Protein 1
Amino acid sequence: VVAVTGGSASAAAVFTDNLVQAAPVRLSRDHLAATGSGDGSGLASGVIVTSGCANAATGAAGDSDQLAVAQRLADRLGRPAEEMLVASTGLIGTRLPVAAVGGAVATLVPDGLAATDEAFAAVATAIMTTDSRSKIASLDVTLDGADGSRPGVRIAGLGKGVGMIHPRMATLIGIVLTDARVAPAALGSMLRDAVADTYNQISVDGDTSTNDTVFLLASGAADAPEIVPGTPAADTFQAGLAAVCRSLARQHAADGEGASTLITCRVTGAADRVDARAVARAVVSSSLFKAAVHGRDPNWGRIVMAAGNGRRPDGTQVRLEVDRLSVRVAGTEVFHGEPVPFDAAPVARAMDAAEVVIELDLGVGDGVGEAWGCDLTEAYVIENSAYST
Amino acid sequence: VVAVTGGSASAAAVFTDNLVQAAPVRLSRDHLAATGSGDGSGLASGVIVTSGCANAATGAAGDSDQLAVAQRLADRLGRPAEEMLVASTGLIGTRLPVAAVGGAVATLVPDGLAATDEAFAAVATAIMTTDSRSKIASLDVTLDGADGSRPGVRIAGLGKGVGMIHPRMATLIGIVLTDARVAPAALGSMLRDAVADTYNQISVDGDTSTNDTVFLLASGAADAPEIVPGTPAADTFQAGLAAVCRSLARQHAADGEGASTLITCRVTGAADRVDARAVARAVVSSSLFKAAVHGRDPNWGRIVMAAGNGRRPDGTQVRLEVDRLSVRVAGTEVFHGEPVPFDAAPVARAMDAAEVVIELDLGVGDGVGEAWGCDLTEAYVIENSAYST
């Protein structure tokens, strides 16, 4: 449970674009529509995340279960139900244990609420399912005020999710909080921008979940002037928000189910940012390349193959000319229009690391982009061959 | 090597749409353009397939290597080089051993050529790389002639490829031969139709190769009347061609790297065929569902999740309403708008088979489609962690 003290906060969300949307996604969407102007942002005073049950594909019963949970939190916080945001992850197709969740809410609110770093960390730990470690990122940002003041605000995020993760709107569950003051609509725009470069650029297994949700709540508690789009303060805040989202996104990819290595792909020289993102995503999403990284095998042919499968979100081809393409694996150039002779042994040794960086220069423009994934291991298969049974 | 005796045959091809196209793909495309009217069909009198080296991402040297191989075959057959089609599969980024291939051609042509079933089977075996078994399908078709005659023609195909396989134009290497007489342009149209429902509906690992090629050659040797589009004979031939391609496509999916189970997904009740194909493909492409099949786990939540990720080739959403959706696993209904209670043990036992059939009815139209994939196993990861080294 995350509760906003002293009223409601500006709230924005990005949800999965899976056509099968879980009950918590539908309810949060409805609540933001009720408290906002219909653009995915609104007001919130409480967030409750349940894990172990996704409450997806559960029919009308799942919807009423989810509403009951939100109502229980609203009652305890003494705020309207529409100001409650909900998220759930876990097994698809099982019912939420409403009574148990309600009992937990009664225990936690208000007596268990605390405004400490430890409490924040406890939330990050409590929502873990197959995660092997909790995921937190925070940043203090100093804004340039229009009046010459330099107020400070904090941006802090947490998240869970290491499987059924593939970019396309949001992935997994993330909650980012800030004490800055931002109007709901501006907050929504800032969140969508940040998500496009971060959460939407990670892939663990190519499967987009039914429950993916990223919330951003701005309480205004720092008592700094409102951040208005188009001002230097907004640019600074946007950069800070992107940094927090990027850190969280990398943590999710690095902790991918069964994974031992974070794969980072940086693309430069693309026709535009959309192309760059698409190619980077294609590389970190390739099963064959992910398996090669697991084997510490500098098999760059699979990188070139994956890059050639890059497609923009509208299905059109990216601009890629293989005779201009350059590929570096862990710092060593291996391809530049044609194969570049290299000594495989030291490259394989450099790949035996917690993070392997792949760099592609497309040589056709100045678009840049990044994406993150993880190696494909026997452990992923074993973990996912026996999950529901 | 496949050689056409007594002149040239009508030829059509479908190639990968990976932006990185291997040298053999480029050369075959050029040759069909030179002998045809630019629509991917033309004339051919010889096909040479080399395995072990993909000749992809090899720069200008790779192009001249491939041309040298085609020229060598042309010389031996005494036909123009433009009538030679070429295909290669294997490791990306290494050079073709032109001298060795040339030597083999000298041995095989003309003395090693034979018009027997055994020779056909020998080609299917010779082109295998990571395939565990050869892939052949053939069918005798009786056509209704316009003049009341009922000529018979044969359609026979072979193929290789069990990894780096994912639908989007063609996948893998397939060669389909027929002694029917069909003009090149009509042949091209028939091949594209057949591929859309068969080869393009299989996935092993989500990676579209740089080398995928399906050739269809019609020699006219049966001395049957020419098959003209729009006639009953054309419909019969099209159905026979689709049946041969479907059989081959299923063989590829069933033999997917590391796989133990063929996954067939049948979709009915979709808004149209494009939607039906997209949803079926999404289900057989889901890493998480493929792992569940490996574990004989009737985890239908992953089927619903995967279906919700179905997208048409232009990136737009399919029409899917979860409250109308019905899902059957190995014959048992497990979801119909909401979870359907079922006994998991017998379903898990039914999944312990060489083929598992998943049926989805979307309940919104009359579009139908099929797709084929395979389970994701530890063996896939092991095989692909140590391929080039």
Protein 2
Amino acid sequence: MDGALGKKYLKDYSAEVQPILAEFLSAEMEVSKDLGKIPLMLMDSYKDMISRGKGIRGTLVKLGYLVGGGKDVDEVVRTSIFVELFHSAILIHDDFMDRDPFRRGAPTVHEEFKKVGKDFGVRIPLDHYGNTAAVCLGDAGLYLSWKALLNSKLPQDRVIEASKLYADFIVRLALGQSLDMTITGMEDIGEQDILTVIWTKSGEYTSQLPLFVGATLAGGMGDEKLAALKDYAKCFGWAFQIQDDILGLYADEDELGKPVGSDIREGKNTLLMLNLRKHGRSADKKFMRKVLGNPNVSVEDVEKMRKILKESGAFQKVVDMGWEYVEEGKQYISRITKDKKLLEVLESLLVYMMERTK
Amino acid sequence: MDGALGKKYLKDYSAEVQPILAEFLSAEMEVSKDLGKIPLMLMDSYKDMISRGKGIRGTLVKLGYLVGGGKDVDEVVRTSIFVELFHSAILIHDDFMDRDPFRRGAPTVHEEFKKVGKDFGVRIPLDHYGNTAAVCLGDAGLYLSWKALLNSKLPQDRVIEASKLYADFIVRLALGQSLDMTITGMEDIGEQDILTVIWTKSGEYTSQLPLFVGATLAGGMGDEKLAALKDYAKCFGWAFQIQDDILGLYADEDELGKPVGSDIREGKNTLLMLNLRKHGRSADKKFMRKVLGNPNVSVEDVEKMRKILKESGAFQKVVDMGWEYVEEGKQYISRITKDKKLLEVLESLLVYMMERTK
């Protein structure tokens, strides 16, 4: 089975959830009107950013709920916007930390508000002003996410259980991010630190959190099913992250919506770099050390890096690893659900994580 | 009545809550151990910072619960740590935004982690690294706050109601903060913007949020009592903020725990400055424009600013305003509760907001 069904499922979820998100945020903007222009402009950027999300995490909340036997699909979809609200909010913080200029095809919030600050004649340094705007908007978004979750009409005890899971996962994500910033650009860090960083932001957060929250909202599941869901989530998270790293260097820039090669400029220790360090020739590694974390790296050097990764075999190793996770993940699905339709969606969506081009 | 009883009530609350906070955070550090050294060092700074808080907001949660007729005092105190966890987390973000070097007598997180980053040999610019560490730790703290609230053993429907209030207030606080950063250092902003900024961070957040959350956890109160509580909260918030502005410029630096005059260096439009703009001579206003927002302002200029504020009468106007709020606030108390002990605590604590020296 290919990823077509999974891709369509994602697209359908996004189409379903976008009007709910838009309505939720419009109501919030109405409430914030008395705070003046800048807060409203920030909320507008947030709304715009969310409308361009892929909806992977929200889709997994819905799927977790369905495999958990939940029946109120409309309400879980309404509830699932919490994770989309969260994801955009934390990306606003991440983009400031990574000093990324673009996201989803538009300037990032800290970049956009440098310009806004200039127009408004702010007196603090514009770079700093942009950063503070991003942190404020991210903070507001984190609490909007909580509001969406707590407003769920699903049973209160399940909402509280799901909320506790949500809190636990995000504490780890935020602390894992501090480790990420610490090792960014470092040459001689242990593989374990790299894997910890990748794991907290992909496996734990991107796949396990939404699937588990969904299952919890449905009323939970037996230990054996839950263990299978966790194994599936692990494979899903790795496949997602591996393709993310690959797309970050090999995608079509217009389709990706952010600069190809920014991982190199930012000195991110991706799986591609880890494999080059393990399997590359010493000249390749020397070149990697030269370009990794260099903010002024040229288009030619990014192109050379792409070539080296392919020629050294590091690229293929990472691709293979991704597909191995897909194959492993498939094996757990029959223990998660007996529902034919869901079986197919879980499998196809997993495959799509490696097939996707953005 | 003076503020002695209120001061003691605050102190007793702090003594009661500190071991609960310490235990909560120690358990969290145990969970985060696998993330490595940096996350643990961050959590350690957070724990340390919280241990030096005044506990005003947590005390108000407890008082809101008591005037709401709540009986499980031990559990509401355990629950109230959420607002202390929140307050320290958001201060970590605020300190980065205000570029404050000190807080509660110790270096701020973004300052401390510049040095830590250097010791660890991080590759991104150290200033930026310090800022990212502060944002990560703040984010983690926000979610630890949620965890503490959701773990409350008080009735679940009340916890959810209180949580929704909490989310709503903080969205406004975060967006209000973006307005604060926008008008920082500006000379010709409207009084309304200044009052909005002060109101969202003092009245709404510092007093109304914790009092209302406490009352909600107790099961709510009638409309008339709630209206009186809101009026009291308004006066409490203004008195708190007015004294905060005064202490920021006139306190003993060692006692305050942060540099006296930092509001001037940061260009904060405090009530003192607003009154000088309204009532000062043109030479005074000219001097104010010269120093406000100047990061290199001298000790002599800060001293001169203090003198100008006193001589122009702006200082006294703000002090008077604070005491007027105290007097107004006292009038609402008898409509909030009939309990003699609580009546006295509410009155004395309100007085203490203007009497406090740190």
Protein 3
Amino acid sequence: MNAYKELEAHYQKIDDLRHIGAITGWDESAMMPAGGGAARSRAMATLNVLVHDLTVDPQISDWLMACENLELSPMQTANVAVIQREHRQAACLTSDFVRAQTEAVMASEQQWRISRAENDWATIQPHLERVVGLAREEAAMRADAGGLGLYDAMLELYEPGVTASQLDTLFEPLKTSLPPLTDAIIAHQANTPCLPLGDHFEVAAQRELGLSVMKTLGFDFNHGRLDTSHHPFCGGVAEDVRLTTRYSETDFLQSLFGVIHETGHAMYEQGRPKDWLTQPVSQALSMGTHESQSLLMEMQAGRSPAFMTFIAPKMRAAFGRAEDDPAWSVDNLYRQVTTVRRDFIRVDADEVTYPLHVILRYELEKALIDGSLTVADLPEAWHQKMTDYFGLSTAGNYKNGVMQDVHWPAGLIGYFPTYTLGALMAAQLFEAAKTSQPETLQQIETGDFTGLLSWLRQHVHNRGSAVSVDQLMTDATGLPLTTDAFLTHLHRRYLD
Amino acid sequence: MNAYKELEAHYQKIDDLRHIGAITGWDESAMMPAGGGAARSRAMATLNVLVHDLTVDPQISDWLMACENLELSPMQTANVAVIQREHRQAACLTSDFVRAQTEAVMASEQQWRISRAENDWATIQPHLERVVGLAREEAAMRADAGGLGLYDAMLELYEPGVTASQLDTLFEPLKTSLPPLTDAIIAHQANTPCLPLGDHFEVAAQRELGLSVMKTLGFDFNHGRLDTSHHPFCGGVAEDVRLTTRYSETDFLQSLFGVIHETGHAMYEQGRPKDWLTQPVSQALSMGTHESQSLLMEMQAGRSPAFMTFIAPKMRAAFGRAEDDPAWSVDNLYRQVTTVRRDFIRVDADEVTYPLHVILRYELEKALIDGSLTVADLPEAWHQKMTDYFGLSTAGNYKNGVMQDVHWPAGLIGYFPTYTLGALMAAQLFEAAKTSQPETLQQIETGDFTGLLSWLRQHVHNRGSAVSVDQLMTDATGLPLTTDAFLTHLHRRYLD
């Protein structure tokens, strides 16, 4: 076996254990009874340490060096590059650190589920202090090993090649233009208020509707499933994608568009390059790219008038509403799914105000990492920014304030910005898809996503991690990523 | 750290990975879509090889030797003994063999689900040939390492200390006495035929009834859950026990008593010695002991007139039946759950004919292992024995014949006899519990299982693997295991 083949075999083994970890992680969120948590945390930590130890195996450096003298295909070369980055990223952490972090994060996530439900900041604060403390240590080690800034070193885990200074440049026009745009849209929408849809929607019917929309979008149920969890996510592995949602009996749109969102993620996973599934090069290019796929489905395609025309009759059928009920007309349902409001919860936010939720978190987590903000001061800092950006107080309202997201309790710092990168990418990609295939919206109106999906397969999914985000965007849309398509989309959808 | 502490730390790590494997295994049976099977098999094989490599780590021998000079507590001494046996059992297999076997077994199990549904022997035969071939290799290696006979070496995995010749001695009186006993009971029951219960029972109502009975028996839902699978089982880990059942819309008793059975297993797992959960000494003593706990709940307690008195009103409520409906009286329901018939399916068999199902499999698998029977000849051999022992032909009826059980496709050879050992133990243990706590049946009649459970906790569950089966039975019942209590129970329940 030559060095490249050795590397592939080694990463197949790593991929096997990541498979096991992904399924057990899904189980922890979607299936596990609370009493199983302590033993599970320990078990997951042991698995993570094993995976970590395999990723930092000193043989990898030797194989990587030997690969320089081999003639490799472009995909093999790209695979080596991803392995090189992953190896460098892992090698700066000790096994003991990985174990301590996994255990801290799992205990903290488990506590978060309880504390959030009880709006109890005091019980989550010590967990968060421990997790943020470990994240600071991690950032210092990563920054040192990668020659990066503290925050950049964390960001690189989710969005390789992007720095905080690039984010500042991209986010600045959003931070400036979105507040007045939000005002204008809210004033505009006040002219045609939504009719209410009712306040009780059977969970079983919601689930059936969600499953049928997943099928419409092209989800392959032979390689995945839908369940429920506290915090919706797309987990599992490419061969077995695990989506979750959560149901509110008073609002079916929340879960439905959540399912569409997660299905966008799932289509990316199910579309990864088939011959490379065990290798790092087949992985999603970045979390921003991943989010572009979920937001393209949820925001660009899913909330389009075309899709609402298709789905409205199915919504009426699911909940036994009459065809001539004005609240259940395409127009009113479209207004329902494009209503803009300043509100507390990021995951329920409309696409106009969403970036401000992200920028708020981005600013706070940068301060957490550089030490200028303590966890103890976090609720107050959150409340201040919510007041500044949204005019909303979260004083004492931890549940809908600083405790609403699982990310920080889960140790994910540097992740939030990828949501807005994804929104920008989604707008630019969807625009390019429609330009290249002008029949896209007519197809969506009939529930036919095959054209759109094959464009995404070709320009995004099948490329894996074999290109940079810049290259992917330029190949697919003719331009690197900017805020133009996104802002144009908002103006066109909400003010024209 | 002294050698004993090293050993404990090492086995804690092994236990962590077994935890991960147990949850992923449960997922494979209860949750995984079929398309995830190939990748899952590979992933599970990698995990199994890792666990195997840890179990055969050469340091273990050194630590075990060093332990001989340490002063250990009785539980520590017992823990060392179990580790010694496990290490010896694992050390005779290579990693390559473990990988090949795991992959073969998982492919075969996955094919079995399809083939059985289609009554298609041809598609499972090659898988079974591969799995049985590997089992023969395994038996040869184990026999060699343990100084045991081929079949005894496989049996030792599930029932340490028991040999085929001991089984022959225990099974002989059953093989002789059960056929005439069955005839007598069937004739006796013909005098009072059962009234039919109806032929449609909502799955949701069945599930609710099952959950409520689990609660009655003492199942801790903070440490476990109930789901569905093709073949019901009790999996997961002590801290998070995963029960499964399957529902038939035409027969709710099948699932209900299946749930009671699996809950018996679960109570054993949830009752393992708390301070020793990460160590082998806390494991179930043997599969026969495990089965004694499920059968004690299902057959001894569950099908008693006392429990039927308690559960009959709940059954009527679950399915909306009137209190004075004669089919739903305690007497008729009791007759329903104690009806004896010669039938095809082992898992649905009554307790009188069940041992003959086991003996049939025991005889066939011994012949498979010693090479006197080929997989190709298995359907015919099955048909012959079914004709001899039950007067039933399974010619062409693979689904309800040789393909009905997952055990052989799953590579489990030497497992079946433990079902009947369990039945014998259950009868003897229940008799002892009632003698020691004469109020047991009155308590069960009110749905109070706490007395029985605490007796089982003390005499079985909390002992873990710290004693031999003989010792456990003698301590709990005053006698080693015999067939007496079981045969007495059958005569008393079915002919008096």
